[in-house]
Write a structure and sequence with these properties.
single chain, mainly alpha, two-stranded parallel sheet, 20 helices, globular
Length: 363
Protein backbone atom coordinates (compact mmCIF):
# COMPACT_ATOMS: atom_id res chain seq x y z
CA UNK A 1 0.00 0.00 0.00
CA UNK A 2 0.96 3.64 -0.29
CA UNK A 3 2.58 5.19 2.73
CA UNK A 4 0.28 7.33 4.90
CA UNK A 5 2.00 10.50 3.66
CA UNK A 6 1.58 9.49 0.02
CA UNK A 7 -2.04 8.54 0.59
CA UNK A 8 -2.71 12.01 1.95
CA UNK A 9 -1.02 13.49 -1.11
CA UNK A 10 -3.17 11.33 -3.35
CA UNK A 11 -6.23 12.85 -1.77
CA UNK A 12 -5.17 16.48 -2.24
CA UNK A 13 -3.16 16.56 -5.46
CA UNK A 14 -4.93 17.51 -8.65
CA UNK A 15 -3.73 15.86 -11.84
CA UNK A 16 -4.88 15.22 -15.55
CA UNK A 17 -5.60 12.10 -18.51
CA UNK A 18 -7.04 8.13 -21.28
CA UNK A 19 -7.73 4.90 -23.50
CA UNK A 20 -9.21 3.82 -26.80
CA UNK A 21 -11.41 1.11 -28.12
CA UNK A 22 -8.37 0.07 -30.15
CA UNK A 23 -6.49 -0.99 -27.06
CA UNK A 24 -9.21 -2.87 -25.24
CA UNK A 25 -7.68 -6.10 -23.93
CA UNK A 26 -10.33 -8.55 -22.83
CA UNK A 27 -11.00 -12.18 -23.59
CA UNK A 28 -14.21 -13.85 -24.67
CA UNK A 29 -15.65 -16.47 -22.39
CA UNK A 30 -15.67 -20.12 -23.42
CA UNK A 31 -19.36 -19.78 -24.28
CA UNK A 32 -18.56 -16.82 -26.55
CA UNK A 33 -15.95 -18.88 -28.34
CA UNK A 34 -18.29 -21.83 -28.77
CA UNK A 35 -21.00 -19.58 -30.22
CA UNK A 36 -18.51 -17.83 -32.46
CA UNK A 37 -16.98 -21.04 -33.74
CA UNK A 38 -20.04 -22.68 -35.19
CA UNK A 39 -23.03 -20.46 -36.01
CA UNK A 40 -25.52 -22.36 -38.18
CA UNK A 41 -25.37 -20.86 -41.69
CA UNK A 42 -27.17 -21.66 -44.90
CA UNK A 43 -25.27 -22.20 -48.12
CA UNK A 44 -26.07 -18.63 -49.17
CA UNK A 45 -24.84 -17.27 -45.85
CA UNK A 46 -21.59 -19.21 -46.12
CA UNK A 47 -21.07 -17.69 -49.57
CA UNK A 48 -21.80 -14.24 -48.13
CA UNK A 49 -19.20 -14.81 -45.41
CA UNK A 50 -16.58 -15.58 -48.05
CA UNK A 51 -17.36 -12.28 -49.78
CA UNK A 52 -16.83 -10.18 -46.67
CA UNK A 53 -13.85 -7.85 -46.61
CA UNK A 54 -11.88 -7.55 -43.35
CA UNK A 55 -11.23 -3.85 -42.94
CA UNK A 56 -8.88 -1.93 -40.68
CA UNK A 57 -9.98 0.98 -38.57
CA UNK A 58 -8.35 4.18 -39.90
CA UNK A 59 -8.21 5.68 -36.41
CA UNK A 60 -6.52 2.60 -34.98
CA UNK A 61 -4.03 2.74 -37.84
CA UNK A 62 -3.23 6.35 -36.94
CA UNK A 63 -2.74 5.36 -33.34
CA UNK A 64 -0.45 2.53 -34.39
CA UNK A 65 1.64 4.92 -36.51
CA UNK A 66 1.89 7.34 -33.58
CA UNK A 67 3.05 4.57 -31.28
CA UNK A 68 5.64 3.45 -33.81
CA UNK A 69 7.02 6.98 -34.10
CA UNK A 70 7.14 7.39 -30.34
CA UNK A 71 8.75 3.99 -29.88
CA UNK A 72 11.45 4.85 -32.42
CA UNK A 73 12.39 7.92 -30.36
CA UNK A 74 12.51 5.78 -27.24
CA UNK A 75 14.61 3.04 -28.85
CA UNK A 76 17.16 5.59 -30.04
CA UNK A 77 17.12 7.37 -26.65
CA UNK A 78 15.90 10.70 -28.04
CA UNK A 79 14.68 11.65 -24.60
CA UNK A 80 14.49 15.37 -25.32
CA UNK A 81 11.99 14.70 -28.11
CA UNK A 82 9.95 12.44 -25.86
CA UNK A 83 9.86 15.11 -23.17
CA UNK A 84 8.65 17.73 -25.65
CA UNK A 85 5.96 15.49 -27.12
CA UNK A 86 4.60 14.45 -23.73
CA UNK A 87 4.48 18.05 -22.51
CA UNK A 88 2.55 19.16 -25.59
CA UNK A 89 -0.09 16.42 -25.62
CA UNK A 90 -0.48 16.60 -21.84
CA UNK A 91 -1.13 20.35 -21.89
CA UNK A 92 -3.45 20.23 -24.91
CA UNK A 93 -5.27 17.03 -23.84
CA UNK A 94 -4.94 15.98 -27.46
CA UNK A 95 -7.05 13.02 -28.58
CA UNK A 96 -7.47 10.79 -31.59
CA UNK A 97 -10.73 10.51 -33.52
CA UNK A 98 -12.12 7.86 -31.20
CA UNK A 99 -11.67 9.88 -28.01
CA UNK A 100 -8.40 8.29 -26.96
CA UNK A 101 -5.96 10.76 -25.43
CA UNK A 102 -2.61 10.88 -27.11
CA UNK A 103 -0.88 10.87 -23.75
CA UNK A 104 -2.11 7.35 -22.99
CA UNK A 105 -0.99 6.16 -26.41
CA UNK A 106 2.36 7.85 -25.78
CA UNK A 107 2.96 5.74 -22.69
CA UNK A 108 1.58 2.59 -24.29
CA UNK A 109 4.25 2.96 -26.97
CA UNK A 110 6.88 1.73 -24.53
CA UNK A 111 5.29 -1.65 -23.84
CA UNK A 112 7.59 -4.64 -24.02
CA UNK A 113 6.06 -7.80 -25.46
CA UNK A 114 5.69 -10.71 -23.06
CA UNK A 115 7.34 -12.86 -25.74
CA UNK A 116 10.56 -10.86 -25.57
CA UNK A 117 13.57 -12.60 -23.94
CA UNK A 118 14.73 -11.54 -20.50
CA UNK A 119 17.64 -9.65 -22.02
CA UNK A 120 15.23 -7.34 -23.84
CA UNK A 121 13.35 -6.57 -20.64
CA UNK A 122 16.63 -5.73 -18.95
CA UNK A 123 17.54 -3.45 -21.85
CA UNK A 124 14.25 -1.59 -21.43
CA UNK A 125 14.95 -1.20 -17.73
CA UNK A 126 18.31 0.33 -18.60
CA UNK A 127 16.79 2.76 -21.11
CA UNK A 128 14.19 3.95 -18.61
CA UNK A 129 16.84 4.56 -15.96
CA UNK A 130 18.96 6.48 -18.46
CA UNK A 131 15.93 8.64 -19.25
CA UNK A 132 15.46 9.51 -15.58
CA UNK A 133 19.17 10.19 -15.18
CA UNK A 134 19.11 12.67 -18.06
CA UNK A 135 15.88 14.33 -16.90
CA UNK A 136 15.81 13.88 -13.10
CA UNK A 137 12.86 16.28 -12.69
CA UNK A 138 10.74 14.63 -15.38
CA UNK A 139 7.31 13.35 -14.41
CA UNK A 140 7.11 11.72 -17.85
CA UNK A 141 10.20 9.58 -17.36
CA UNK A 142 9.02 8.35 -13.97
CA UNK A 143 5.48 7.51 -15.03
CA UNK A 144 6.92 5.62 -18.01
CA UNK A 145 9.32 3.71 -15.75
CA UNK A 146 6.62 2.87 -13.21
CA UNK A 147 4.48 1.54 -16.04
CA UNK A 148 7.36 -0.58 -17.29
CA UNK A 149 8.04 -2.01 -13.83
CA UNK A 150 4.37 -2.93 -13.50
CA UNK A 151 4.47 -4.75 -16.83
CA UNK A 152 7.72 -6.41 -15.77
CA UNK A 153 6.04 -7.62 -12.58
CA UNK A 154 3.18 -9.25 -14.46
CA UNK A 155 5.69 -10.72 -16.90
CA UNK A 156 7.34 -12.53 -13.97
CA UNK A 157 4.04 -13.70 -12.57
CA UNK A 158 2.51 -14.83 -15.85
CA UNK A 159 -1.18 -14.84 -16.71
CA UNK A 160 -2.17 -18.21 -15.26
CA UNK A 161 -4.08 -19.00 -12.09
CA UNK A 162 -2.36 -18.23 -8.80
CA UNK A 163 -1.49 -21.89 -8.14
CA UNK A 164 0.44 -21.99 -11.42
CA UNK A 165 2.85 -19.20 -10.41
CA UNK A 166 6.28 -20.31 -9.25
CA UNK A 167 7.83 -19.17 -5.98
CA UNK A 168 10.37 -17.13 -7.94
CA UNK A 169 7.58 -15.65 -10.03
CA UNK A 170 5.78 -14.44 -6.91
CA UNK A 171 9.00 -12.99 -5.51
CA UNK A 172 9.77 -10.99 -8.64
CA UNK A 173 6.14 -9.96 -8.98
CA UNK A 174 6.17 -8.48 -5.50
CA UNK A 175 9.58 -6.82 -5.82
CA UNK A 176 8.80 -5.15 -9.13
CA UNK A 177 5.39 -3.90 -8.08
CA UNK A 178 6.93 -2.41 -4.97
CA UNK A 179 9.61 -0.76 -7.10
CA UNK A 180 6.87 0.71 -9.30
CA UNK A 181 5.05 2.01 -6.22
CA UNK A 182 8.21 3.72 -5.01
CA UNK A 183 8.76 5.38 -8.38
CA UNK A 184 5.20 6.68 -8.25
CA UNK A 185 5.79 7.96 -4.74
CA UNK A 186 8.91 9.82 -5.87
CA UNK A 187 6.99 11.31 -8.78
CA UNK A 188 4.53 12.90 -6.36
CA UNK A 189 7.26 15.28 -5.21
CA UNK A 190 7.90 16.64 -8.70
CA UNK A 191 6.43 20.03 -9.67
CA UNK A 192 4.60 18.78 -12.76
CA UNK A 193 1.68 16.35 -12.51
CA UNK A 194 0.53 13.73 -14.99
CA UNK A 195 -2.86 12.03 -15.24
CA UNK A 196 -1.30 8.75 -16.27
CA UNK A 197 0.27 8.58 -12.83
CA UNK A 198 -3.18 7.46 -11.73
CA UNK A 199 -3.49 4.93 -14.52
CA UNK A 200 -0.29 3.20 -13.41
CA UNK A 201 -1.25 3.51 -9.73
CA UNK A 202 -4.54 1.71 -10.46
CA UNK A 203 -2.62 -1.25 -11.89
CA UNK A 204 -0.16 -1.34 -8.99
CA UNK A 205 -3.09 -1.19 -6.57
CA UNK A 206 -4.73 -4.25 -8.06
CA UNK A 207 -1.45 -6.16 -8.13
CA UNK A 208 -0.59 -5.33 -4.52
CA UNK A 209 -4.18 -5.77 -3.32
CA UNK A 210 -4.46 -2.34 -1.77
CA UNK A 211 -7.38 -1.69 0.53
CA UNK A 212 -10.48 -0.90 -1.53
CA UNK A 213 -10.95 2.45 0.22
CA UNK A 214 -7.50 3.60 -0.90
CA UNK A 215 -8.27 2.61 -4.47
CA UNK A 216 -11.62 4.39 -4.27
CA UNK A 217 -9.94 7.60 -3.08
CA UNK A 218 -7.53 7.48 -6.00
CA UNK A 219 -10.39 7.02 -8.45
CA UNK A 220 -12.42 9.81 -6.89
CA UNK A 221 -9.52 12.27 -7.06
CA UNK A 222 -8.76 11.33 -10.65
CA UNK A 223 -12.31 11.82 -11.87
CA UNK A 224 -12.65 15.03 -9.87
CA UNK A 225 -9.63 16.48 -11.65
CA UNK A 226 -10.86 15.56 -15.14
CA UNK A 227 -14.41 14.15 -15.15
CA UNK A 228 -14.31 13.64 -18.92
CA UNK A 229 -11.20 11.45 -18.91
CA UNK A 230 -13.10 8.24 -19.55
CA UNK A 231 -10.12 5.99 -18.96
CA UNK A 232 -10.46 6.59 -15.22
CA UNK A 233 -14.08 5.44 -15.19
CA UNK A 234 -13.35 2.38 -17.31
CA UNK A 235 -10.55 1.38 -14.95
CA UNK A 236 -12.66 1.99 -11.86
CA UNK A 237 -15.49 -0.13 -13.27
CA UNK A 238 -12.99 -2.90 -13.98
CA UNK A 239 -11.79 -2.79 -10.37
CA UNK A 240 -15.37 -3.42 -9.24
CA UNK A 241 -15.66 -6.73 -11.05
CA UNK A 242 -16.15 -9.59 -8.55
CA UNK A 243 -12.63 -10.82 -9.30
CA UNK A 244 -11.26 -7.64 -7.69
CA UNK A 245 -13.03 -5.36 -5.21
CA UNK A 246 -16.64 -5.66 -6.33
CA UNK A 247 -19.75 -7.69 -5.73
CA UNK A 248 -22.26 -8.83 -8.36
CA UNK A 249 -23.95 -5.79 -9.86
CA UNK A 250 -21.49 -3.27 -8.43
CA UNK A 251 -19.60 -2.35 -11.60
CA UNK A 252 -22.92 -1.93 -13.38
CA UNK A 253 -24.11 0.46 -10.66
CA UNK A 254 -20.89 2.41 -10.99
CA UNK A 255 -21.52 2.79 -14.73
CA UNK A 256 -24.89 4.34 -13.93
CA UNK A 257 -23.37 6.69 -11.36
CA UNK A 258 -20.65 7.75 -13.79
CA UNK A 259 -23.24 8.51 -16.46
CA UNK A 260 -25.23 10.59 -13.95
CA UNK A 261 -22.35 12.89 -12.99
CA UNK A 262 -23.33 16.40 -14.10
CA UNK A 263 -19.81 17.25 -15.25
CA UNK A 264 -19.04 13.93 -16.90
CA UNK A 265 -19.69 12.36 -20.30
CA UNK A 266 -23.23 11.22 -19.59
CA UNK A 267 -24.47 8.22 -21.55
CA UNK A 268 -21.18 8.08 -23.47
CA UNK A 269 -19.26 6.86 -20.44
CA UNK A 270 -21.90 4.21 -19.77
CA UNK A 271 -21.42 2.85 -23.29
CA UNK A 272 -17.64 2.98 -23.02
CA UNK A 273 -17.71 0.95 -19.82
CA UNK A 274 -19.98 -1.57 -21.53
CA UNK A 275 -17.67 -1.74 -24.56
CA UNK A 276 -14.73 -2.50 -22.28
CA UNK A 277 -16.53 -5.42 -20.60
CA UNK A 278 -19.02 -6.88 -23.08
CA UNK A 279 -16.95 -9.89 -24.11
CA UNK A 280 -16.30 -11.01 -20.57
CA UNK A 281 -19.78 -12.51 -20.72
CA UNK A 282 -21.80 -14.81 -22.93
CA UNK A 283 -24.38 -12.04 -23.28
CA UNK A 284 -23.72 -8.94 -21.19
CA UNK A 285 -27.37 -7.87 -21.32
CA UNK A 286 -28.62 -11.21 -20.00
CA UNK A 287 -25.80 -11.98 -17.57
CA UNK A 288 -25.39 -8.57 -15.88
CA UNK A 289 -27.45 -5.58 -14.77
CA UNK A 290 -26.38 -3.54 -17.78
CA UNK A 291 -29.25 -1.89 -19.65
CA UNK A 292 -29.41 -1.76 -23.42
CA UNK A 293 -31.37 1.54 -23.73
CA UNK A 294 -28.65 3.40 -21.80
CA UNK A 295 -25.97 1.65 -23.82
CA UNK A 296 -27.73 2.53 -27.07
CA UNK A 297 -27.97 6.19 -26.04
CA UNK A 298 -24.25 6.24 -25.35
CA UNK A 299 -23.41 4.48 -28.58
CA UNK A 300 -25.49 7.00 -30.50
CA UNK A 301 -23.47 9.83 -28.98
CA UNK A 302 -20.17 8.08 -29.70
CA UNK A 303 -21.08 7.34 -33.30
CA UNK A 304 -21.99 10.98 -33.86
CA UNK A 305 -18.83 12.30 -32.21
CA UNK A 306 -16.45 9.82 -33.85
CA UNK A 307 -17.83 8.96 -37.30
CA UNK A 308 -14.40 7.89 -38.60
CA UNK A 309 -14.17 4.99 -36.16
CA UNK A 310 -14.90 1.74 -37.98
CA UNK A 311 -14.48 -0.19 -34.75
CA UNK A 312 -17.34 1.65 -33.05
CA UNK A 313 -19.75 0.87 -35.90
CA UNK A 314 -18.92 -2.82 -35.60
CA UNK A 315 -19.26 -2.82 -31.82
CA UNK A 316 -22.60 -1.04 -32.07
CA UNK A 317 -23.88 -3.74 -34.44
CA UNK A 318 -22.58 -6.55 -32.24
CA UNK A 319 -24.06 -5.13 -29.05
CA UNK A 320 -27.40 -4.45 -30.74
CA UNK A 321 -27.45 -8.10 -31.76
CA UNK A 322 -26.86 -9.23 -28.19
CA UNK A 323 -29.66 -6.90 -27.05
CA UNK A 324 -32.13 -8.10 -29.72
CA UNK A 325 -32.51 -4.58 -31.14
CA UNK A 326 -32.99 -5.38 -34.83
CA UNK A 327 -33.70 -1.81 -35.90
CA UNK A 328 -30.50 -0.40 -34.45
CA UNK A 329 -28.47 -3.37 -35.66
CA UNK A 330 -29.88 -3.04 -39.18
CA UNK A 331 -28.84 0.61 -39.34
CA UNK A 332 -25.30 -0.35 -38.42
CA UNK A 333 -25.13 -3.21 -40.92
CA UNK A 334 -26.42 -0.90 -43.65
CA UNK A 335 -23.38 1.30 -43.02
CA UNK A 336 -20.97 -1.61 -42.84
CA UNK A 337 -22.06 -3.35 -46.01
CA UNK A 338 -19.69 -6.22 -46.70
CA UNK A 339 -16.87 -4.87 -44.54
CA UNK A 340 -16.19 -6.01 -40.99
CA UNK A 341 -13.71 -5.43 -38.17
CA UNK A 342 -12.04 -8.70 -37.23
CA UNK A 343 -11.34 -7.98 -33.51
CA UNK A 344 -15.07 -7.45 -32.93
CA UNK A 345 -16.41 -10.47 -34.79
CA UNK A 346 -13.43 -12.86 -34.85
CA UNK A 347 -14.92 -14.77 -37.77
CA UNK A 348 -16.90 -13.56 -40.81
CA UNK A 349 -19.53 -16.23 -40.16
CA UNK A 350 -20.46 -14.52 -36.90
CA UNK A 351 -20.92 -11.21 -38.72
CA UNK A 352 -23.13 -12.81 -41.38
CA UNK A 353 -25.15 -14.69 -38.78
CA UNK A 354 -25.94 -11.47 -36.91
CA UNK A 355 -26.57 -9.49 -40.10
CA UNK A 356 -29.02 -12.10 -41.36
CA UNK A 357 -30.95 -11.89 -38.12
CA UNK A 358 -31.02 -8.06 -38.33
CA UNK A 359 -32.44 -8.29 -41.86
CA UNK A 360 -34.90 -11.16 -41.42
CA UNK A 361 -35.47 -11.71 -37.72
CA UNK A 362 -34.34 -15.32 -38.06
CA UNK A 363 -31.58 -16.55 -35.78
Amino acid sequence: MLSRSLLLKCLVIAIIPVLTGCDAKSTATSKDKKADDSPHLTVAQKAAAQNLKPTKDPVCEEIYAYRQQTRARYNSRRFDELEKEAAEVRAAKSAFDNGSRKLVQFYDSFECSSKEPEGMWQLHDKIHREWIEKFPQSITARVAYAGFLTDYAWHARGTGYADSVTKEGWRLFGERLEAARKVLEEAQNLPEKDPCWYMVAFRVALGQSWDETVYAHLAEKATAFDPKFWGFDVQRAYSLLPRWFGHPGEWESYAEDAAARPDGLGAEIYARIVMSNWNRYDNIFNDTRIFWPKTRDGLTIILQKYPRSFEFKNLAARLAGLADDREFARKMFDQLGDTYYVPTWKKPEVFVHCRTWAETGNR
